[in-house]
Design goal:
The protein has 478 residues and is of the alpha/beta class. The protein is 34% helix and 24% strand.
Length: 478
């Protein structure tokens, strides 16, 4: 059987998946990504790129062992946005900087015209983005900086390791603060603002095009067919949208480690208040307008490990359905585009003395409600920038395996929530679709759609006001 192999480097874990040529997932192997603290900065973290490559090889071996007899005809990669790998003069991997690395934070003030940066890049400049990571290395690690000859996004670096060809894909370039998003090109003006030489920038490449052939020395390790190619992938959020196959102009909620809320656009739009991000999508002409609810999925996963360490999601859903009392309210650091600063302290609020009706499901319900309310807030921020009248939104990502969450979102938005049957693996599926397009020049017919209709709006309105008051009160306290 001919197959595609998709490498996905997320914030929390690395995974390698094998799909058939129809985009059906055959096997997946995953492990946590290993990070180290960098003692040279107060809020910095990094990974050893060579170690990550060995991890990818190991995961590929495991995933392929589950589907003996396949021959991989195409490879692609996707990864967390804003993460980069610095390269030396001989192409060696020097250091990996994930999206959660903030080594450039103390140099955010070097920019005197942040509004100009926002207009060009579609995002307000902070240490989250790649340019300020580079500035942090230059200013704080001069010995390392002397060795730096270039950099790549993590997914573009994986493709470089596979093919020996360097290129920076447009959706990933959107996250660097060095890329003119409307102009679809690197910006010498932006490089000058950060004091970075344009020689650091590789050529731009388009998602869904063939980057090169798989290096001969990797054929056996990756069970590759003769003539196997490496296809340009893209940022994980964009590939999740690709796997979902929404319609033009639709809204998409991608529930992973974070929860981007996305509006698909056919033109470049920014927000006067700089609350949103605008990026390139994976196709030739589309853009995505985004507000992000922050580390919602990570919060849910960690609290599941506390309250349901040995049970699966079906058990949680059963206990949530049996609940009669919803007195618990959570504020867990989700982000809201309209707020001037993030919530940095959170917790659960419930009536005292503690009710006998309060149980572990109460805390999980409050967590899901916090996620849903944060999505609602960001959804309407997007609507204020680009109006939206459709009766539905799309959803994908592992966080959406909670039907309760889907129902809460539908009720709060007053919209149907639509999902493909492969929603949990939407990023991997998007990678398979891109490989198929590169090799065959056509699209795969996507799977069936499940819809959750809005219900319970009068009840939700009262609960929503309680959540807003709790969040506002906590901000005053801390």
């Amino acid at each position: 059987m001919e197959a595609y192999l998709i490498i996905d480097i997320g914030t929390g874990n690395a995974r390698v998946a094998v799909t058939d040529r129809g985009g059906n997932v055959l096997s997946v192997a995953r492990e946590d990504v290993h990070y180290e603290k960098d003692i040279h900065y107060p809020d910095s973290i990094y990974f050893d790129a060579d170690e990550l490559w060995e991890q990818i090889l190991r995961l590929a071996g495991r995933a392929l062992s589950e589907v003996p007899g396949v021959r991989v005809v195409a490879f692609t990669a996707t990864s967390q946005r804003e993460g980069i790998v610095l390269l030396g003069r001989n192409g060696e991997s020097l250091i990996g900087l994930p999206n959660i690395d903030h080594r450039g934070r103390q140099w955010e003030g070097v920019l005197t015209d942040k509004q100009r940066v926002y207009l060009l890049t579609g995002r307000y400049p902070t240490s989250l983005f790649s340019a300020l990571k580079l500035v942090g290395v230059r200013e704080g690690r001069p010995a390392v900086w002397e060795r730096v000859a270039g950099f790549l996004s993590i997914s573009d670096w994986v493709q470089y390791k596979l093919s020996g060809v360097r290129g920076y894909e447009h959706s990933q370039a959107s996250e660097t603060l060095l890329y003119d998003v409307a102009g679809k090109k690197w910006s010498p003006e932006l490089c000058a603002l950060f004091g970075l030489d344009t020689s650091l920038l590789p050529g731009l490449v388009s998602s869904g095009t063939v980057l090169g052939s798989l290096l001969p020395g990797l054929t056996a390790a990756f069970a590759a067919a003769a003539g196997a190619v490496v296809v340009v992938g893209g940022a994980d959020t964009q590939l999740a949208i690709e796997g979902t196959q929404p319609g033009a102009g639709d809204m998409v909620i991608v529930s992973g480690t974070t929860t981007p809320i996305i509006r698909l656009l056919d033109k470049y739009i920014t927000d006067e208040a700089a609350r949103t991000w605008t990026s390139r999508h994976t196709d030739e002409h589309s853009f995505i307008l985004e507000a992000n609810a922050g580390v919602t999925g990570l919060n849910y996963q960690r609290l599941k490990e506390i309250f349901y360490p040995n049970e699966g999601y079906p058990v949680i859903e059963q206990e949530l359905a049996a609940m009669d009392c919803r007195q618990c309210v959570a504020v867990l650091g989700s982000l809201i585009a309209d707020e001037p600063s993030p919530v940095t302290r959170g917790g659960f609020l419930f009536n005292v003395p503690v009710s006998h009706e309060l149980n572990r499901a109460s805390f999980v319900w409050a967590t899901l409600w916090d996620i849903a309310c944060s999505i609602r807030e960001n959804f309407f921020t997007l609507c204020s920038v680009a109006s939206y009248s459709s009766d539905h939104v799309w959803a994908c990502g592992g966080g959406m395996q909670s039907r309760t969450l889907r129902e809460l979102i539908a009720g709060l938005l007053g919209k149907k929530v639509l999902m493909r049957s492969n929603y949990k693996d939407s990023t991997v599926v998007g990678g398979a679709y891109i490989c198929h397009r590169a090799l065959n020049g056509g699209a795969i017919v996507p799977p069936d759609v499940e819809a959750v209709a809005p219900a319970g709006q009068p009840y939700f309105a009262g609960q929503y006001e309680s959540w807003k008051q709790t969040r506002a009160g906590l901000r005053k306290i801390v």
